Protein backbone atom coordinates (compact mmCIF):
# COMPACT_ATOMS: atom_id res chain seq x y z
CA UNK A 1 0.00 0.00 0.00
CA UNK A 2 1.26 3.48 -0.87
CA UNK A 3 2.32 5.40 2.21
CA UNK A 4 0.54 8.61 3.14
CA UNK A 5 2.19 11.86 2.13
CA UNK A 6 3.19 14.65 4.45
CA UNK A 7 1.86 17.88 2.90
CA UNK A 8 2.10 21.32 4.48
CA UNK A 9 1.02 24.71 3.08
CA UNK A 10 2.90 27.47 4.91
CA UNK A 11 1.60 31.00 5.50
CA UNK A 12 4.18 32.31 3.02
CA UNK A 13 2.66 30.23 0.24
CA UNK A 14 5.26 27.46 0.27
CA UNK A 15 3.90 24.00 -0.48
CA UNK A 16 6.07 21.49 1.42
CA UNK A 17 6.06 17.89 0.21
CA UNK A 18 7.63 14.91 1.93
CA UNK A 19 7.73 11.18 1.26
CA UNK A 20 7.16 9.47 4.65
CA UNK A 21 9.87 7.11 5.81
CA UNK A 22 7.26 4.45 6.58
CA UNK A 23 6.39 4.11 2.90
CA UNK A 24 6.97 0.38 2.17
CA UNK A 25 8.95 1.27 -0.97
CA UNK A 26 10.73 4.29 0.47
CA UNK A 27 14.23 3.49 -0.84
CA UNK A 28 13.01 2.59 -4.32
CA UNK A 29 10.97 5.79 -4.57
CA UNK A 30 13.86 7.81 -3.18
CA UNK A 31 15.98 6.45 -6.03
CA UNK A 32 13.30 7.31 -8.62
CA UNK A 33 12.97 10.83 -7.20
CA UNK A 34 16.75 11.27 -7.31
CA UNK A 35 16.79 10.26 -10.99
CA UNK A 36 14.31 13.09 -11.63
CA UNK A 37 16.47 15.55 -9.71
CA UNK A 38 14.10 15.55 -6.74
CA UNK A 39 14.57 14.77 -3.07
CA UNK A 40 12.26 13.11 -0.56
CA UNK A 41 11.50 16.64 0.69
CA UNK A 42 10.55 19.34 -1.79
CA UNK A 43 9.21 22.89 -1.48
CA UNK A 44 7.19 24.78 -4.08
CA UNK A 45 6.70 28.53 -3.76
CA UNK A 46 3.20 29.43 -4.90
CA UNK A 47 3.06 32.93 -3.43
CA UNK A 48 2.32 35.89 -5.61
CA UNK A 49 1.33 35.85 -9.25
CA UNK A 50 3.09 33.22 -11.38
CA UNK A 51 3.65 33.49 -15.12
CA UNK A 52 2.34 30.68 -17.30
CA UNK A 53 5.88 29.36 -17.66
CA UNK A 54 6.43 29.23 -13.88
CA UNK A 55 2.98 27.71 -13.37
CA UNK A 56 3.75 24.96 -15.89
CA UNK A 57 7.08 24.30 -14.16
CA UNK A 58 5.35 24.07 -10.77
CA UNK A 59 2.78 21.63 -12.14
CA UNK A 60 5.47 19.50 -13.77
CA UNK A 61 7.41 19.29 -10.51
CA UNK A 62 4.26 18.39 -8.58
CA UNK A 63 3.36 15.77 -11.16
CA UNK A 64 6.80 14.14 -11.13
CA UNK A 65 6.73 13.98 -7.33
CA UNK A 66 3.10 12.82 -7.28
CA UNK A 67 3.64 10.04 -9.82
CA UNK A 68 6.51 8.52 -7.88
CA UNK A 69 5.01 8.70 -4.40
CA UNK A 70 1.74 7.19 -5.70
CA UNK A 71 3.43 4.15 -7.28
CA UNK A 72 2.19 0.80 -5.97
CA UNK A 73 4.25 -2.40 -5.65
CA UNK A 74 3.89 -3.58 -9.27
CA UNK A 75 4.52 -0.09 -10.64
CA UNK A 76 7.64 0.28 -8.48
CA UNK A 77 8.95 -3.12 -9.59
CA UNK A 78 8.52 -2.37 -13.31
CA UNK A 79 8.90 1.41 -12.98
CA UNK A 80 12.47 1.72 -14.19
CA UNK A 81 11.53 0.11 -17.51
CA UNK A 82 7.85 1.03 -17.91
CA UNK A 83 8.11 4.81 -17.53
CA UNK A 84 7.42 6.49 -20.88
CA UNK A 85 9.53 9.39 -22.23
CA UNK A 86 6.70 11.66 -21.05
CA UNK A 87 7.22 10.37 -17.51
CA UNK A 88 3.98 8.35 -17.32
CA UNK A 89 4.05 5.02 -15.46
CA UNK A 90 0.44 3.88 -15.94
CA UNK A 91 -3.06 5.27 -16.38
CA UNK A 92 -3.93 4.33 -12.79
CA UNK A 93 -0.87 6.10 -11.46
CA UNK A 94 -1.49 9.18 -13.60
CA UNK A 95 -5.06 9.52 -12.33
CA UNK A 96 -3.89 9.00 -8.74
CA UNK A 97 -1.10 11.56 -9.07
CA UNK A 98 -3.37 14.23 -10.58
CA UNK A 99 -6.10 13.56 -8.00
CA UNK A 100 -3.47 13.84 -5.26
CA UNK A 101 -2.30 17.23 -6.59
CA UNK A 102 -5.87 18.54 -6.55
CA UNK A 103 -6.40 17.30 -3.01
CA UNK A 104 -3.41 19.24 -1.69
CA UNK A 105 -4.23 22.59 -3.32
CA UNK A 106 -5.76 24.73 -0.52
CA UNK A 107 -9.39 25.73 -1.00
CA UNK A 108 -8.81 29.14 0.55
CA UNK A 109 -5.95 31.46 1.49
CA UNK A 110 -5.42 35.05 2.63
CA UNK A 111 -3.86 36.82 -0.36
CA UNK A 112 -5.81 37.37 -3.60
CA UNK A 113 -2.71 36.86 -5.78
CA UNK A 114 -2.20 33.49 -4.12
CA UNK A 115 -5.87 32.64 -4.69
CA UNK A 116 -5.45 33.39 -8.39
CA UNK A 117 -2.31 31.24 -8.59
CA UNK A 118 -3.97 28.28 -6.88
CA UNK A 119 -7.06 28.58 -9.08
CA UNK A 120 -4.86 28.60 -12.20
CA UNK A 121 -3.00 25.54 -10.92
CA UNK A 122 -6.27 23.77 -10.13
CA UNK A 123 -7.60 24.51 -13.62
CA UNK A 124 -4.37 23.21 -15.23
CA UNK A 125 -4.60 19.95 -13.26
CA UNK A 126 -8.26 19.42 -14.22
CA UNK A 127 -7.32 19.97 -17.85
CA UNK A 128 -4.63 17.27 -17.57
CA UNK A 129 -7.09 14.88 -15.91
CA UNK A 130 -9.45 15.13 -18.88
CA UNK A 131 -6.55 14.28 -21.20
CA UNK A 132 -5.21 11.27 -19.30
CA UNK A 133 -3.42 8.96 -21.72
CA UNK A 134 -5.36 5.82 -22.53
CA UNK A 135 -8.55 6.86 -20.76
CA UNK A 136 -11.45 5.45 -22.78
CA UNK A 137 -14.33 7.68 -23.77
CA UNK A 138 -17.15 5.95 -25.53
CA UNK A 139 -20.91 5.85 -25.33
CA UNK A 140 -22.19 2.74 -23.62
CA UNK A 141 -24.05 0.45 -26.02
CA UNK A 142 -27.29 -0.27 -24.16
CA UNK A 143 -29.12 -3.53 -24.87
CA UNK A 144 -32.69 -2.25 -25.27
CA UNK A 145 -34.21 -5.73 -25.29
CA UNK A 146 -33.30 -6.18 -21.61
CA UNK A 147 -35.72 -4.32 -19.36
CA UNK A 148 -34.10 -3.50 -16.03
CA UNK A 149 -37.32 -3.69 -14.02
CA UNK A 150 -35.83 -5.21 -10.86
CA UNK A 151 -32.87 -2.86 -11.06
CA UNK A 152 -35.18 0.15 -11.46
CA UNK A 153 -37.18 -0.93 -8.41
CA UNK A 154 -33.94 -1.16 -6.42
CA UNK A 155 -32.93 2.37 -7.44
CA UNK A 156 -36.39 3.64 -6.47
CA UNK A 157 -36.10 1.83 -3.11
CA UNK A 158 -32.68 3.40 -2.65
CA UNK A 159 -33.91 6.90 -3.39
CA UNK A 160 -36.79 6.39 -0.94
CA UNK A 161 -34.13 5.48 1.65
CA UNK A 162 -31.80 8.41 1.06
CA UNK A 163 -29.68 7.21 -1.87
CA UNK A 164 -28.62 9.98 -4.27
CA UNK A 165 -27.48 8.98 -7.74
CA UNK A 166 -26.44 10.53 -11.03
CA UNK A 167 -26.30 7.10 -12.63
CA UNK A 168 -28.73 5.00 -14.60
CA UNK A 169 -28.63 1.19 -14.48
CA UNK A 170 -28.73 -0.57 -17.86
CA UNK A 171 -27.75 -3.75 -19.67
CA UNK A 172 -24.59 -2.84 -21.57
CA UNK A 173 -23.24 -4.75 -24.53
CA UNK A 174 -20.09 -6.64 -23.54
CA UNK A 175 -20.45 -5.94 -19.82
CA UNK A 176 -23.81 -7.14 -18.56
CA UNK A 177 -25.43 -4.72 -16.14
CA UNK A 178 -23.63 -1.44 -15.57
CA UNK A 179 -24.04 2.18 -14.52
CA UNK A 180 -24.32 4.99 -17.07
CA UNK A 181 -23.87 8.66 -16.26
CA UNK A 182 -27.25 10.40 -16.49
CA UNK A 183 -25.51 13.79 -16.73
CA UNK A 184 -22.02 15.13 -17.38
CA UNK A 185 -19.80 14.43 -14.36
CA UNK A 186 -16.66 16.47 -13.78
CA UNK A 187 -13.80 15.83 -11.37
CA UNK A 188 -15.04 15.67 -7.78
CA UNK A 189 -18.72 15.26 -8.62
CA UNK A 190 -20.38 12.59 -6.49
CA UNK A 191 -21.84 10.00 -8.86
CA UNK A 192 -23.47 8.00 -6.07
CA UNK A 193 -24.14 8.59 -2.36
CA UNK A 194 -25.52 5.91 -0.06
CA UNK A 195 -26.50 6.42 3.61
CA UNK A 196 -25.16 3.99 6.21
CA UNK A 197 -28.71 2.80 6.89
CA UNK A 198 -28.89 1.36 3.35
CA UNK A 199 -25.62 -0.59 3.63
CA UNK A 200 -25.55 -4.26 4.65
CA UNK A 201 -22.92 -4.67 7.36
CA UNK A 202 -22.19 -6.77 10.44
CA UNK A 203 -24.47 -4.51 12.52
CA UNK A 204 -27.46 -6.47 11.21
CA UNK A 205 -25.97 -9.68 12.60
CA UNK A 206 -25.40 -8.16 16.04
CA UNK A 207 -29.10 -7.23 16.20
CA UNK A 208 -30.36 -10.63 15.03
CA UNK A 209 -31.21 -13.91 16.77
CA UNK A 210 -28.08 -15.40 15.15
CA UNK A 211 -25.55 -13.44 17.16
CA UNK A 212 -25.95 -15.21 20.55
CA UNK A 213 -25.11 -18.46 18.75
CA UNK A 214 -22.39 -17.19 16.43
CA UNK A 215 -20.47 -15.26 19.08
CA UNK A 216 -19.81 -18.54 20.89
CA UNK A 217 -18.05 -20.07 17.88
CA UNK A 218 -14.33 -19.86 18.52
CA UNK A 219 -12.44 -17.82 15.93
CA UNK A 220 -15.45 -16.84 13.79
CA UNK A 221 -14.96 -13.54 11.95
CA UNK A 222 -17.45 -10.73 11.42
CA UNK A 223 -17.20 -11.41 7.66
CA UNK A 224 -18.33 -15.01 8.15
CA UNK A 225 -21.17 -13.88 10.43
CA UNK A 226 -22.61 -11.40 7.94
CA UNK A 227 -22.24 -13.99 5.15
CA UNK A 228 -24.28 -16.51 7.17
CA UNK A 229 -26.86 -13.80 7.94
CA UNK A 230 -27.15 -13.01 4.24
CA UNK A 231 -27.77 -16.66 3.34
CA UNK A 232 -30.95 -16.60 5.44
CA UNK A 233 -31.98 -12.98 4.87
CA UNK A 234 -32.04 -13.53 1.12
CA UNK A 235 -35.11 -15.76 1.61
CA UNK A 236 -36.89 -13.39 4.01
CA UNK A 237 -39.88 -11.98 2.11
CA UNK A 238 -40.18 -9.17 4.66
CA UNK A 239 -36.51 -8.20 4.50
CA UNK A 240 -35.71 -4.51 4.32
CA UNK A 241 -33.25 -5.42 1.57
CA UNK A 242 -35.61 -7.57 -0.53
CA UNK A 243 -35.36 -5.18 -3.56
CA UNK A 244 -31.57 -5.67 -3.42
CA UNK A 245 -31.68 -9.46 -3.09
CA UNK A 246 -34.17 -9.62 -6.00
CA UNK A 247 -31.55 -8.13 -8.34
CA UNK A 248 -28.84 -10.67 -7.51
CA UNK A 249 -27.92 -13.36 -10.00
CA UNK A 250 -28.75 -16.99 -9.34
CA UNK A 251 -25.32 -17.90 -10.73
CA UNK A 252 -22.29 -15.61 -10.56
CA UNK A 253 -20.06 -17.66 -12.88
CA UNK A 254 -16.88 -16.80 -11.03
CA UNK A 255 -13.96 -19.17 -11.34
CA UNK A 256 -15.12 -20.78 -8.09
CA UNK A 257 -18.16 -22.25 -9.85
CA UNK A 258 -16.53 -23.18 -13.17
CA UNK A 259 -17.81 -26.43 -14.66
CA UNK A 260 -15.73 -29.46 -15.60
CA UNK A 261 -15.17 -28.35 -19.21
CA UNK A 262 -13.90 -24.92 -18.15
CA UNK A 263 -11.59 -26.46 -15.55
CA UNK A 264 -10.19 -28.85 -18.17
CA UNK A 265 -9.63 -25.91 -20.50
CA UNK A 266 -7.44 -24.28 -17.84
CA UNK A 267 -5.03 -27.22 -17.72
CA UNK A 268 -1.44 -25.96 -17.54
CA UNK A 269 -2.37 -22.41 -16.47
CA UNK A 270 -1.54 -20.56 -13.27
CA UNK A 271 -5.25 -19.77 -12.91
CA UNK A 272 -6.17 -23.43 -12.46
CA UNK A 273 -4.06 -23.69 -9.31
CA UNK A 274 -5.53 -20.44 -7.97
CA UNK A 275 -9.11 -21.63 -8.46
CA UNK A 276 -8.56 -25.11 -7.03
CA UNK A 277 -6.77 -23.79 -3.93
CA UNK A 278 -9.46 -21.18 -3.28
CA UNK A 279 -12.29 -23.67 -3.71
CA UNK A 280 -10.60 -26.23 -1.46
CA UNK A 281 -10.20 -23.60 1.25
CA UNK A 282 -13.90 -22.66 1.01
CA UNK A 283 -14.96 -26.31 1.23
CA UNK A 284 -12.81 -26.82 4.33
CA UNK A 285 -14.36 -23.76 5.99
CA UNK A 286 -17.87 -24.96 5.15
CA UNK A 287 -17.21 -28.43 6.57
CA UNK A 288 -15.94 -26.84 9.79
CA UNK A 289 -18.89 -24.46 10.12
CA UNK A 290 -21.92 -26.61 9.38
CA UNK A 291 -21.69 -28.92 12.44
CA UNK A 292 -21.69 -25.78 14.60
CA UNK A 293 -24.95 -24.50 13.10
CA UNK A 294 -27.26 -27.31 14.26
CA UNK A 295 -29.94 -24.95 15.49
CA UNK A 296 -33.43 -23.98 14.22
CA UNK A 297 -32.04 -20.48 13.63
CA UNK A 298 -30.04 -22.00 10.74
CA UNK A 299 -32.47 -24.06 8.59
CA UNK A 300 -30.45 -26.88 6.93
CA UNK A 301 -32.14 -26.34 3.56
CA UNK A 302 -30.72 -22.78 3.47
CA UNK A 303 -27.20 -23.78 4.49
CA UNK A 304 -26.24 -26.25 1.79
CA UNK A 305 -22.80 -26.24 0.15
CA UNK A 306 -24.33 -24.77 -3.02
CA UNK A 307 -25.92 -21.89 -1.10
CA UNK A 308 -22.70 -21.30 0.84
CA UNK A 309 -20.67 -21.15 -2.37
CA UNK A 310 -23.22 -18.72 -3.85
CA UNK A 311 -22.93 -16.47 -0.79
CA UNK A 312 -19.12 -16.58 -0.96
CA UNK A 313 -19.25 -15.58 -4.63
CA UNK A 314 -21.67 -12.77 -3.74
CA UNK A 315 -19.31 -11.34 -1.14
CA UNK A 316 -16.18 -11.84 -3.23
CA UNK A 317 -17.71 -10.13 -6.26
CA UNK A 318 -19.94 -7.47 -4.67
CA UNK A 319 -18.70 -6.58 -1.20
CA UNK A 320 -16.53 -3.58 -0.35
CA UNK A 321 -14.23 -2.82 2.57
CA UNK A 322 -15.69 0.30 4.20
CA UNK A 323 -14.16 2.39 6.97
CA UNK A 324 -16.84 3.59 9.39
CA UNK A 325 -16.73 6.70 11.63
CA UNK A 326 -15.62 4.55 14.59
CA UNK A 327 -12.47 3.71 12.62
CA UNK A 328 -13.46 0.09 12.08
CA UNK A 329 -13.06 -1.49 8.64
CA UNK A 330 -16.12 -3.57 7.75
CA UNK A 331 -16.99 -5.85 4.84
CA UNK A 332 -20.28 -4.57 3.40
CA UNK A 333 -22.74 -5.10 0.57
CA UNK A 334 -23.67 -1.78 -1.05
CA UNK A 335 -27.01 -1.78 -2.91
CA UNK A 336 -26.86 0.06 -6.28
CA UNK A 337 -23.05 0.47 -6.07
CA UNK A 338 -22.71 -3.19 -7.02
CA UNK A 339 -23.72 -2.29 -10.58
CA UNK A 340 -20.54 -0.27 -11.12
CA UNK A 341 -18.20 -2.30 -13.32
CA UNK A 342 -14.42 -2.46 -13.00
CA UNK A 343 -11.99 -1.01 -15.52
CA UNK A 344 -8.26 -0.45 -15.78
CA UNK A 345 -9.32 3.12 -16.70
CA UNK A 346 -11.70 3.82 -13.79
CA UNK A 347 -13.61 7.01 -13.07
CA UNK A 348 -14.04 6.26 -9.37
CA UNK A 349 -10.88 5.37 -7.45
CA UNK A 350 -11.28 7.04 -4.05
CA UNK A 351 -14.13 5.59 -2.01
CA UNK A 352 -14.52 3.30 0.96
CA UNK A 353 -14.74 5.78 3.84
CA UNK A 354 -18.02 6.91 5.38
CA UNK A 355 -18.38 10.70 5.47
CA UNK A 356 -18.82 11.69 9.13
CA UNK A 357 -20.80 14.85 8.32
CA UNK A 358 -23.45 13.10 6.20
CA UNK A 359 -23.21 9.52 7.58
CA UNK A 360 -23.06 8.32 4.00
CA UNK A 361 -20.70 6.63 1.57
CA UNK A 362 -19.77 8.80 -1.41
CA UNK A 363 -18.42 7.79 -4.82
CA UNK A 364 -16.76 10.86 -6.41
CA UNK A 365 -15.31 10.68 -9.92
CA UNK A 366 -11.58 11.24 -10.36
CA UNK A 367 -11.86 11.93 -14.08
CA UNK A 368 -14.74 13.27 -16.19
CA UNK A 369 -17.55 10.95 -17.24
CA UNK A 370 -19.88 12.39 -19.85
CA UNK A 371 -23.59 11.74 -20.07
CA UNK A 372 -24.23 8.37 -21.71
CA UNK A 373 -20.79 6.94 -20.85
CA UNK A 374 -20.43 3.96 -18.57
CA UNK A 375 -19.06 5.00 -15.18
CA UNK A 376 -16.35 2.61 -13.98
CA UNK A 377 -15.13 1.84 -10.47
CA UNK A 378 -11.71 0.44 -9.54
CA UNK A 379 -12.15 -2.84 -7.66
CA UNK A 380 -8.45 -2.75 -6.85
CA UNK A 381 -5.09 -3.40 -8.48
CA UNK A 382 -5.83 -7.03 -9.33
CA UNK A 383 -4.57 -9.45 -11.95
CA UNK A 384 -7.03 -10.78 -14.52
CA UNK A 385 -6.78 -14.25 -12.95
CA UNK A 386 -7.86 -12.82 -9.57
CA UNK A 387 -10.74 -10.93 -11.18
CA UNK A 388 -11.90 -14.07 -12.97
CA UNK A 389 -11.58 -16.29 -9.88
CA UNK A 390 -13.44 -14.00 -7.49
CA UNK A 391 -15.46 -11.63 -9.70
CA UNK A 392 -16.28 -13.69 -12.78
CA UNK A 393 -14.92 -11.51 -15.60
CA UNK A 394 -11.79 -10.53 -17.49
CA UNK A 395 -11.05 -6.80 -17.82
CA UNK A 396 -10.87 -5.24 -21.26
CA UNK A 397 -7.48 -4.02 -22.46
CA UNK A 398 -3.95 -4.78 -21.29
CA UNK A 399 -4.00 -5.24 -17.53
CA UNK A 400 -0.63 -4.08 -16.10
CA UNK A 401 -1.25 -6.30 -13.06
CA UNK A 402 -1.20 -9.49 -15.12
CA UNK A 403 2.11 -10.67 -13.72
CA UNK A 404 3.67 -14.12 -13.59
CA UNK A 405 5.36 -14.64 -10.20
CA UNK A 406 8.69 -16.42 -10.18
CA UNK A 407 10.04 -18.64 -7.40
CA UNK A 408 13.78 -18.57 -6.86
CA UNK A 409 15.99 -20.08 -4.20
CA UNK A 410 17.42 -17.37 -1.96
CA UNK A 411 21.01 -16.61 -2.89
CA UNK A 412 23.23 -17.50 0.07
CA UNK A 413 25.08 -14.23 0.30
CA UNK A 414 25.06 -11.92 3.29
CA UNK A 415 25.73 -8.91 1.10
CA UNK A 416 22.79 -9.39 -1.25
CA UNK A 417 20.22 -7.92 1.13
CA UNK A 418 20.22 -4.19 0.53
CA UNK A 419 17.52 -1.58 0.77
CA UNK A 420 16.94 -2.04 -2.97
CA UNK A 421 16.62 -5.86 -3.00
CA UNK A 422 13.36 -7.66 -3.76
CA UNK A 423 12.23 -10.85 -2.02
CA UNK A 424 9.89 -11.79 -4.88
CA UNK A 425 10.20 -11.40 -8.63
CA UNK A 426 7.74 -11.28 -11.50
CA UNK A 427 7.32 -10.81 -15.23
CA UNK A 428 4.52 -9.46 -17.41
CA UNK A 429 3.88 -8.75 -21.08
CA UNK A 430 7.03 -7.11 -22.41
CA UNK A 431 5.03 -4.86 -24.75
CA UNK A 432 4.35 -2.77 -21.60
CA UNK A 433 8.05 -1.93 -21.30
CA UNK A 434 9.49 1.24 -22.81
CA UNK A 435 13.07 -0.06 -23.00
CA UNK A 436 14.08 -3.00 -25.22
CA UNK A 437 17.72 -1.97 -25.61
CA UNK A 438 20.81 -3.92 -24.57
CA UNK A 439 20.78 -4.79 -20.82
CA UNK A 440 16.99 -4.21 -20.65
CA UNK A 441 15.26 -6.27 -23.40
CA UNK A 442 11.77 -5.26 -22.19
CA UNK A 443 12.41 -7.29 -19.01
CA UNK A 444 12.30 -5.86 -15.45
CA UNK A 445 15.60 -4.56 -14.10
CA UNK A 446 15.15 -6.06 -10.58
CA UNK A 447 14.84 -9.55 -12.09
CA UNK A 448 17.80 -9.09 -14.44
CA UNK A 449 20.01 -7.83 -11.62
CA UNK A 450 18.96 -10.72 -9.38
CA UNK A 451 19.92 -13.25 -12.06
CA UNK A 452 23.18 -11.43 -12.78
CA UNK A 453 23.96 -11.64 -9.08
CA UNK A 454 23.13 -15.36 -9.12
CA UNK A 455 25.71 -15.81 -11.90
CA UNK A 456 28.41 -14.06 -9.89
CA UNK A 457 28.16 -10.51 -11.22
CA UNK A 458 27.93 -8.39 -8.07
CA UNK A 459 28.11 -4.93 -9.65
CA UNK A 460 25.75 -3.81 -12.38
CA UNK A 461 27.19 -0.59 -13.75
CA UNK A 462 27.10 -0.25 -17.52
CA UNK A 463 30.86 -0.84 -17.64
CA UNK A 464 30.50 -4.08 -15.66
CA UNK A 465 27.73 -5.28 -17.95
CA UNK A 466 29.70 -4.56 -21.13
CA UNK A 467 32.66 -6.48 -19.72
CA UNK A 468 30.50 -9.51 -18.86
CA UNK A 469 28.32 -10.13 -21.89
CA UNK A 470 28.57 -13.89 -21.32
CA UNK A 471 26.66 -13.31 -18.06
CA UNK A 472 23.93 -11.55 -20.07
CA UNK A 473 23.68 -14.61 -22.31
CA UNK A 474 23.30 -16.85 -19.26
CA UNK A 475 20.60 -14.65 -17.74
CA UNK A 476 18.54 -14.53 -20.93
CA UNK A 477 18.92 -18.25 -21.57
CA UNK A 478 17.79 -18.94 -17.99
CA UNK A 479 14.59 -16.91 -18.45
CA UNK A 480 14.04 -18.41 -21.90
CA UNK A 481 14.30 -21.96 -20.56
CA UNK A 482 11.84 -21.26 -17.73
CA UNK A 483 9.21 -19.81 -20.03
CA UNK A 484 9.74 -22.42 -22.74
CA UNK A 485 8.60 -24.94 -20.13
CA UNK A 486 5.59 -22.79 -19.23
CA UNK A 487 4.58 -22.54 -22.88
CA UNK A 488 4.88 -26.30 -23.27
CA UNK A 489 2.59 -26.79 -20.26
CA UNK A 490 -0.11 -24.70 -21.93
CA UNK A 491 -0.20 -27.04 -24.91
CA UNK A 492 -1.49 -26.10 -28.35
CA UNK A 493 -4.31 -23.62 -28.87
CA UNK A 494 -7.67 -25.40 -28.72
CA UNK A 495 -10.02 -25.73 -31.67
CA UNK A 496 -13.21 -25.50 -29.58
CA UNK A 497 -16.17 -23.75 -31.20
CA UNK A 498 -16.03 -20.67 -29.02
CA UNK A 499 -19.23 -19.16 -30.37
CA UNK A 500 -21.30 -22.07 -29.07
CA UNK A 501 -19.30 -22.73 -25.90
CA UNK A 502 -20.65 -22.04 -22.42
CA UNK A 503 -19.70 -18.75 -20.79
CA UNK A 504 -17.30 -20.32 -18.30
CA UNK A 505 -15.51 -22.18 -21.10
CA UNK A 506 -15.20 -18.96 -23.13
CA UNK A 507 -13.69 -17.18 -20.13
CA UNK A 508 -11.28 -20.05 -19.51
CA UNK A 509 -10.17 -19.99 -23.16
CA UNK A 510 -9.62 -16.23 -23.13
CA UNK A 511 -7.68 -16.42 -19.87
CA UNK A 512 -5.42 -19.11 -21.30
CA UNK A 513 -4.85 -17.03 -24.45
CA UNK A 514 -3.83 -14.05 -22.32
CA UNK A 515 -1.27 -16.12 -20.45
CA UNK A 516 0.03 -17.52 -23.74
CA UNK A 517 0.37 -13.97 -25.12
CA UNK A 518 2.40 -12.85 -22.08
CA UNK A 519 4.71 -15.87 -22.21
CA UNK A 520 5.14 -15.47 -25.96
CA UNK A 521 6.20 -11.83 -25.53
CA UNK A 522 8.76 -12.84 -22.88
CA UNK A 523 10.20 -15.53 -25.16
CA UNK A 524 10.36 -13.07 -28.06
CA UNK A 525 12.20 -10.56 -25.87
CA UNK A 526 14.67 -13.22 -24.74
CA UNK A 527 15.33 -14.30 -28.34
CA UNK A 528 15.81 -10.70 -29.48
CA UNK A 529 18.05 -10.04 -26.46
CA UNK A 530 20.21 -13.11 -27.09
CA UNK A 531 20.65 -12.08 -30.72
CA UNK A 532 21.57 -8.55 -29.64
CA UNK A 533 24.15 -9.74 -27.10
CA UNK A 534 25.65 -12.18 -29.62
CA UNK A 535 26.11 -9.34 -32.10
CA UNK A 536 27.98 -7.27 -29.51
CA UNK A 537 30.14 -10.25 -28.51
CA UNK A 538 31.19 -10.65 -32.16
CA UNK A 539 31.47 -6.90 -32.77
CA UNK A 540 32.21 -5.18 -29.43
CA UNK A 541 31.39 -1.45 -29.25
CA UNK A 542 34.36 0.83 -29.71
TrEMBL record:
Residues 165-380 form the SET domain. GO terms for molecular function: protein-lysine N-methyltransferase activity. This is SET domain. It comes from Arabidopsis suecica (Swedish thale-cress).
